[in-house]
Design goal:
Number of domains: 1
Oligomer: single chain
Order of helices and strands: EEHEEHHEEHEEEEEHEEEEHHHEEEHHHH
Distance between the termini: 44 Å
Number of helices: 12
CATH class: Alpha Beta
Largest sheet: 8 strands, mixed
CATH architecture: 3-Layer(bba) Sandwich
CATH topology: FAD/NAD(P)-binding domain
Radius of gyration: 21 Å
């Protein structure tokens, strides 16, 4: 079987994988990205770009090119509960909405320009250690089999992958009942939609976020917690419209019929708990390392931050796996653990039917509370 050799192999070509490739290629390492799907493609995501990502673009001299993609500026955050209590906070940082297909394709193309070799669509089917290197067995779309050898393996494949099962990561068996769903909806399906705001609406077992990603498209992304009743995504939104009058007032009369005609992007069994940061020879970045509750956190921001952190540590330790692993675990927790913990508390509170509204009433009594939560969950 043909073996191709690199210093570092990255599994996944989304923001975490592409960012890691850009950081590490600048340091002179040879990089391979193995991506299961063909870009551009859509994935589940709230499609919100926060300060951390803008800082990354500027550091990589990519900000002006990013703006030419036409991202939608977002200036503020508004939260509406079913008791019609509204929380509002302006952002104290630049923020944007953009489709993941555009963003991911942009970042991956920049990695190619830096000499990163991309294998897509191609799927990792196994991994073995060979002396001081690791060999990934890969199958391409046309069933061609080949292998990639490298000293370092970075997993940047998102929330879950079959490799989690093979590497013995315990969360793979967890049944969380959390599902995420995303629609791209024509802005005409909403009344007086404020394109400069990200808006969150909550109800029983669901919170739903909306933000514009270009002049004509709104991303509607929601997290649902399923109990015994198995609703469809449309039924969950119908329930939300009956419970939350602010949400209902935003919807055009043809809104629910329009959902039958557009693609649904979704992921089931989303696990927000603790994960290994380094396991079985693999370094994890982005969602593969830990997922922040989307209500108050920016997953794309965490992706590029963790990619930057790991790149610095690998370079500083000259790709020494053991030393880099010890340092990465320590620094990752220092950077993200408190943020993820706070976001998890907020998410549990919002999805709890007994404490949600009292909690919202409490936050409303302290005008700076919402801005403080945003600050500490956006890095």
């Amino acid at each position: 079987m043909k073996i191709k050799k690199f210093d570092i192999s990255i599994i996944g070509g989304g923001p975490a994988g592409s960012a890691a490739a850009l950081f590490l290629s600048k340091r002179g390492y040879s990089i391979a990205i193995i991506e299961k799907k063909l870009f551009p493609r859509e994935v589940l995501c709230g499609e919100f770009i926060s300060k951390e990502v803008i800082d990354f673009f500027k550091a990589q001299s990519l900000f002006e090119e990013f703006l030419r993609l036409g991202p939608n500026p977002i200036m503020s955050f508004r939260f509406s509960s079913e008791n019609e209590k509204v929380l509002f906070a302006p952002f104290r940082f630049p923020a944007y909405g953009i489709k993941r297909s555009l963003l991911d394709n942009f970042l991956l193309s920049k990695a190619v320009e830096k000499g990163v070799e991309i294998f897509q669509p191609a799927e990792v089917t196994g991994m073995v250690q060979h002396f001081d290197s690791y060999i990934l067995n890969i199958k391409s779309k046309n069933q061609e089999l080949f292998s990639v050898s490298s000293k370092i393996i970075i997993a940047a494949y998102g929330r879950q992958n079959i490799l989690d099962k093979y590497s013995g990561r315990d969360f793979y068996r967890a049944k969380t009942k959390f599902n995420g769903v995303k629609f791209h909806i024509d802005k005409a399906q909403f009344y007086n939609f404020n394109t400069e705001e990200i808006q969150i609406f909550c109800g029983r077992g669901i919170y739903c976020g909306l933000n514009a990603v270009d002049n004509n498209t709104v991303t509607l992304c929601f997290l649902e917690k399923r109990d015994s009743i198995q609703y469809s995504p449309k039924e969950f939104l119908l329930q939300l419209s009956r419970e939350n009058m602010k949400f209902k007032a935003l919807l055009n009369k043809d809104f629910f019929n329009s959902l039958d005609k557009i693609p649904i992007y979704g992921t089931g069994n989303i696990y927000f708990g603790k994960r290994d940061i380094v396991n079985g020879g693999i370094f994890y970045v982005g969602d593969a390392a830990g997922i922040i509750a989307p209500l108050v956190g920016d997953g794309i921001g965490m992706a590029v931050q963790s990619a930057s952190l790991l790149s610095d540590i690998l370079s500083r330790n000259n790709l020494d796996h053991e030393r880099a692993g010890i340092e990465y675990k320590k620094e990752w927790r220092k950077m993200f653990l408190n943020r993820i913990t706070l976001a998890g508390i907020v998410q549990k509170s919002v999805l709890n039917n007994y404490i949600r509204n009292p909690g919202i009433e409490l936050i409303a009594q302290f005008p700076r509370a919402l801005s403080t939560i945003i600050k500490y969950t956006r890095g």
